[in-house]
Specification:
Strand order of the largest sheet of chain A: 2-1-3-10-11-12-13
Number of domains of chain B: 2
Strand content of chain A: 15-25%
Oligomer: heterodimer
Number of strands of chain A: 14
Radius of gyration of chain A: 19 Å
Shape of chain B: globular
Structural class of chain A: alpha/beta
Number of helices of chain B: 4
Radius of gyration of chain B: 23 Å
Number of helices of chain A: 7
Shape of chain A: globular
Number of strands of chain B: 15
Helix content of chain B: 10-25%
Distance between the termini of chain A: 32 Å
Structural class of chain B: alpha+beta
Largest interface: A-B, 129 and 97 residues
Distance between the termini of chain B: 78 Å
Helix content of chain A: 10-25%
Largest sheet of chain B: 9 strands, antiparallel
Largest sheet of chain A: 7 strands, mixed
Order of helices and strands of chain A: HEHEEEEEEEEEHEHHEHHEE
Strand content of chain B: 25-35%
Chain lengths: ~350, ~300
């Protein structure tokens, strides 16, 4: 039944393309940047605003194909900015983060440290079946995996929601934006269709979550499958032992790839941003590497989802020009393609984070 | 006469190629500027046939498969492929990539040789390591069990001067099994010799009788750090600046919020905190005005 629905949706899409529908010719060019430095006494992410502003400065210049949408900082960043009103009535992402005509929506601030890991050692993921053994915060659930890192011996870890954090008197969700199991739906548009059940009033084509622990291995798809409601790409950081370092130039470095060549791949720009940040700033990663915007071991990761494998894979090939074209909005989330670069060497043919 | 000498000097400098910064000068540690002639990004292609345009603050050399962009002001050079494709074209993400993946140690060796042969001073090469490119794809319902694939490496060359890490200088390249450069980035500006001297003095303080006094001045609970050389990033705007710094990684945990903040603080020889030019970026007021809402009950 699902396949039949997908076929029908694809036929409609093809028909729109062939007819040259003005809806399909829609482009989105606005950029919104939301940056939080001030999380209260003793909790300052001093480089968030320089980082977010660096991205905006790098993208917005005379002749740029991108346009200034919005810039909010500190207490002007509300948790409701990221939340879809169809999923939670307090949400207002249709006015802010996921507003129609958004090409890029960039958040820089805190993520959360919930890791879902237990102290139960393991040698295979098949042994990780008891989420109740996980420690720390969050609601743990299956799937479970036998995860390791250059810092950690193999132990059972479980799926746990990922969240971004705001701090404003106007927050209505305790300053927590749960983009895994919460009321977040990004990118739903007339071009993507309303398959995610959140209408077609969104618009973000690329979401950047420049935060700590944006995703943990190997839950790259599980983490974002619900948030993906038509968005073309989601870029974030994945830690593999260590933490994201709050650096001032991740945004400007990412933007420099656009300024250098707008026909280059957006996904490649995000992962190669890691290479270009200072290697010796931040703690090292055992076995070689570290730094590059991390304190320890980590990766810049980008993921695209779509209705079929070919479209999901092709999301990683989109250039900055294609990113603005809403005809590239995701038509579903049944398939994913992810790419990432890690700040340490991993030999081919060896398990990177998880024992099968 | 004086004015004429000044004018001639200025004219001479203006006429020199952009790589003048490599020339030895007792007052500075030489930098390295990557150029289209030195780059192997256009291997197999005539450099003379690349189209040269000035755009977005860069001099861009546009070849068949990509662009080498050089910021003449800062010296930043980055090479980026022009391999973007629309979703409708359904080009596989791996299209154009070489199937042969070099071993990371071999990759490191080849990239260091490449940069040193191009003119990057060998005595400034610090720690070298490989970053790993990976990918995974498939049905979202089976994502956690799909084994990622190693697609290749980039070799990162860090910089040292006078025995100190020059943190903000970066050179990296990614090459395929045939030696073709797939992407690269070089930012390696000259460093005033005075800054290296400052770092040396700061290091002497930390290794001598002044250590306790210096550390007591640092307004940070974290005292463990490292003497390094910092300089403006290529995106700092304004003029180039370099500093000797005692860098400390500040890490604050807030378990009640499940957050941790990690960032690097910088202290001068007097223990005073300072910020790098690109750490002070702030474009001003928010826009468009946002209506404040009453606090949640």
């Amino acid at each position: 039944m699902a396949a039949k629905r997908d076929f029908k949706r694809t036929c409609i899409t093809v028909a729109f393309v062939l007819c040259g529908s003005p809806v399909m010719a829609q482009t989105s060019t606005d950029i919104i940047v939301e940056s939080v430095t001030d999380y209260g006494p003793g909790d300052q992410l001093v480089n968030s605003i320089p980082n977010g502003d660096g991205f905006a400065q790098g993208m917005l210049f005379p002749g740029s194909r991108f346009t200034a949408g919005a810039r909010y900082t500190n207490s002007a960043v509300y948790d409701t900015d990221f939340v879809d009103p169809a999923a939670n009535s307090v949400g207002n992402d249709t006015t802010y983060f996921d507003r129609r005509n958004r090409a890029i929506a960039y958040f820089t601030g805190h993520g959360i440290t919930d890791h879902g890991c237990s102290t139960v050692s393991c040698s295979t993921s098949a042994a990780c079946t008891n989420p109740a053994t996980a420690q720390g915060g969050g609601a743990f659930r299956l799937p479970g995996v036998c995860r390791f890192s250059p810092f950690d011996m193999p132990r059972c870890c479980y799926m746990v929601d990922r969240q971004a954090v705001t701090r404003s008197p106007s927050d209505k969700l305790n300053g927590l934006v749960n983009y895994t199991g919460g009321p977040v739906r990004w990118g739903e548009s007339p071009q993507s269709g309303g398959w995610a059940g959140a209408g077609t009033d969104g618009g973000a084509n690329l979401v950047v979550l420049d935060i700590s622990h944006g995703v943990l291995p190997p839950f790259w798809a599980e983490t974002f499958v619900r948030a993906n409601a038509g968005v073309q790409l989601i870029a974030t950081m994945m830690t593999g032992g260590g933490d994201t370092s709050n650096v001032p130039d991740r945004g400007s470095t990412f933007a420099s790839f656009f300024r250098a060549n707008e026909n280059s791949r957006v996904a490649e720009a995000w992962v190669q941003t890691m290479n270009s940040l200072p290697a010796s700033e931040g703690g090292s990663c055992p076995g070689g590497g570290g730094g590059h915007g991390f304190n320890g071991c980590g990766c810049n990761l980008v993921i695209g989802m779509d209705i079929d494998a070919a479209r999901a894979n092709a999301s990683l090939t989109e250039s900055w020009v294609h990113l603005t074209q809403d005809s590239n909005d995701a038509l579903g989330n049944r398939f994913f393609a992810a790419r990432w670069v890690c700040n340490y060497p991993i030999k081919a043919g060896r398990a990177a984070w998880v024992l099968p | 006469m004086f004015n004429r000498t000044v004018c001639l000097t200025v004219a001479l400098f203006a006429s020199l190629p952009s790589s003048y910064a490599q020339q030895p000068d007792a007052s500075e540690i030489p930098g390295y500027r990557h150029t289209v002639e030195k780059s192997r990004f256009f291997a197999g292609e005539s450099v003379a046939r690349t189209k040269v345009v000035e755009e977005n603050g860069f001099t861009k050399y546009q070849g068949r498969n990509g662009v080498l962009a050089i910021d003449q002001k800062t010296g930043l050079a980055l090479a980026v492929r022009s391999d973007g494709a629309d979703k409708a074209s359904r080009v596989p993400a791996s299209a154009g990539a070489s199937t042969a993946v070099l071993d990371p140690d071999e990759h490191n060796k080849r990239v260091v040789n490449y940069f040193v042969r191009a003119g990057l001073p060998r005595d400034q090469v610090g720690v070298v390591h490989a970053n790993t490119y990976l990918s995974a794809s498939g049905p979202t319902s089976k994502a956690a069990s799909i084994e990622p694939r190693v697609d290749g490496y980039a070799t990162i060359v860090s910089r040292q001067a006078g025995g100190f890490d020059v943190v903000d200088s970066v050179a990296w390249a990614r090459i395929d099994g045939k030696g073709q450069v797939l992407g690269e980035w070089v930012y390696w500006p000259p460093i005033p010799a005075k800054v290296v001297d400052d770092a040396r003095r700061l290091n002497e303080t930390l290794n001598g009788a002044g250590r306790s006094d210096f550390l007591s001045k640092i307004p940070s609970p974290q005292k463990t750090g490292k003497v390094v050389i910092r300089h403006a990033s290529p995106f700092a705007g304004g003029g180039f600046e370099a500093f000797a710094s005692y860098d400390v990684i500040e890490r604050n945990e807030r378990p009640e919020r499940a957050t941790t903040s990690v960032y690097v603080r910088h202290f001068d020889a007097e223990g005073r905190e300072f910020r790098l030019p690109h750490e002070m970026r702030n474009v001003g007021a928010d826009y468009p005005p946002k209506e404040a809402r009453p606090a949640a009950q």
